[in-house]
Structure formats: C-alpha cells, structure tokens
Amino acid sequence: MGWFKRLKEGIQTATKHKKEVPEGLWFKCDECKETSTMKELKECFYMCPKCGFHCRIGSHDYFEILFDNGWSEMFEELQSFDFLGFTDLKQYDQRLQDAYTKSNVSEAITVAQGKLNNKSLVVAAMDFSFIGGSMGSVVGEKIALSIEHCLTKKIPLLIISKSGGARMMESAFSLMQLAKTAALLTKLAKSKIPYLSLLTDPTTGGVTASFAMLGDVNFAEPKALIGFAGPRVIKETIKQDLPEGFQTSEFLLEHGFLDFIVPRDKLKERIDNLLEIF
C-alpha cells in the first residue's frame, strides 16, 4: 500500500520556494541545453542568456529589434494560390491554409518600412515558419515591389534571408524569381541605393543563389547555416568528408563569402553605421 500513500519522509519543497510558472514561459536552448525564461530570452534579443545561441525568430521580431517606433507593412494583400493545380501527398492549397493557421504571416516574406535611428529603411524579412521560408512567385514579387519602392523613394533596402530554397509546388515559376530579383537589384545598384543582405539560419537553395548573396554588404548572424545544397548531398557527390564547421557563417567569413558576422544585440547599431557610411 506504500505505493498509494504520500510519504512524510523524503524531499519536501517548502511553499515559499516553489515556482509556479505558466506553461510556455520556459525556454530550453538547443545548443547548450540550459533552461531560461522566455522573458530573459526576449530581453537578450532571442539569444540564449547562457551561451548566446541565436534562436530562429520571425519577421515581426526583427521589425521590433530594428525599427524605432513602429512600422508600416507593405504588400500584405499579396498571397499565394495553387495556380498550377499541383498535386502531391498534400494539396498545395491545403499546405497554404495550414501555413496561414500555424504562422502569424500571410507569406514567407513580410515587407515593412520604418525608421532606424531616424533613418528611413525598407526591410523584407523571411519567415521560416511559412512552408520553410520557401521562395515562390509571391516572395519574388514582394521583393521586386520593395526594390521598385526603394528606387522611387530613394530608400535603402535590407533583406533578411531565412529559407529552405525555392518552392517546389510552383515548379519553374519559383526558379524564375532568381533572375527576376537579381535583375531588379542591378537597377538598385546602378541608382546607388544601398542594399544590405543579412543571412540567418538557415539560408539555402535558390535564395542563396540569388538575392541573399548580392548585397552591397553581405553579413550573417553567428553559427547560421548558409549554403546551396545540403552537406549530405555535397558529401555524397564529391565522395569526401567535409571540413569541420562547413557551411556555417564563420566558415563562409573565413573563406571570403561574407563581409562580417554580427550578433543580434549589435544588429541595429551595425546597420546604422553602414547607412551612415553609405
């Protein structure tokens, strides 16, 4: 019967030492496995308070970090639909509906304009929570409209990349966005309007092969996965073991693919310095 009785002996926690924290307020770091509160995490710009690991965050989180006092969202009426009638294990329309339900955004990229230390800036930030941040025709169109807006208003552009690559459900139309965005960025360069590219974890596939690597300045968050094909595919193709830290932002910086790495708590200050220089 001892199994069914609360024993008076043993470890007892006094009421004054008990911490009743509502569900969802704890965060466990994927890197160091240490636990902290969500309040601490947010105060540290969503970096682990113990080891500095950068957690994946959404577009609106970046807007809160970068903009002074609010922002105005742009092109939010544009949404994807299954114009090809794509059929796989799950209908594309259903995947889109699931993405709308699970995320707080209407597409894999969100565009906003605001002030960064009183300097006008357009920020196009990708959301990995929306079908893996995949680049479809609407993502390409939003970037194109952002560039045209910057050309008209003479405002610098920042694109924050976080993507698994092109959206397979839109077939060749998704691949067309590589050339489309690259061509418009050339117009931005000719007009001498700054384009800054921030690569975050992960930035892969067609996004890396297009606008993510075409910035006047390309920079990344620490320990971000950046590449075209995945490490497993590359290893099987070349039949060789890959170097330690391959495809991390630190590896790319060492080999000349990035200009610098910036922690998230220094991001606003660093971008402000770049805008001052330009």
Description:
The protein is α/β, with parallel strands linked by helices. It has 2 domains: 26-55, no CATH class; 56-277, 2-enoyl-CoA Hydratase, Chain A, domain 1 (Alpha-Beta Complex), CATH 3.90.226. It is built from 9 helices and 9 strands. The chain has helices spanning 38-43, 59-66, 92-102, 137-153, 171-190, 205-208, 231-238, 249-254, 267-277; strands spanning 26-28, 35-37, 71-74, 109-116, 119-126, 157-163, 195-203, 217-220, 260-261. A 7-stranded mixed β-sheet has the order 3-4-5-6-7-8-9, with helices on both faces. Strand 1 and strand 2 (35-37) form a beta hairpin. Helix 4 (137-153) runs parallel beside helix 5. The longest helix is centred in the middle third of the chain and has 20 residues, at 171-190. It is globular and about 50 Å long. The N and C termini lie far apart (77 Å).
At the first level of CATH, the class of the largest domain is Alpha Beta
Estimate the strand proportion.
15-25%
Low-confidence stretches: 6-23
Helix proportion range: 25-40%
Please compute the radius of gyration using only Cα atoms. 22 Å
Amino- and carboxy-terminal Cα gap: 77 Å
CATH architecture term of the largest domain: Alpha-Beta Complex
Give the oligomer, counting copies of the same chain as homo and different chains as hetero: single chain
Overall, the morphology is globular
According to DSSP, the number of beta strands is 9
Secondary structural class: alpha/beta
> How many helices does DSSP assign?
9
Strand order of the largest sheet: 3-4-5-6-7-8-9
Q: Order of SSEs, N→C?
A: EEHHEHEEHEHEHEHHEH
Give a short account of the largest sheet: 7 strands, mixed
Reported by name, the CATH topology of the largest domain is 2-enoyl-CoA Hydratase, Chain A, domain 1
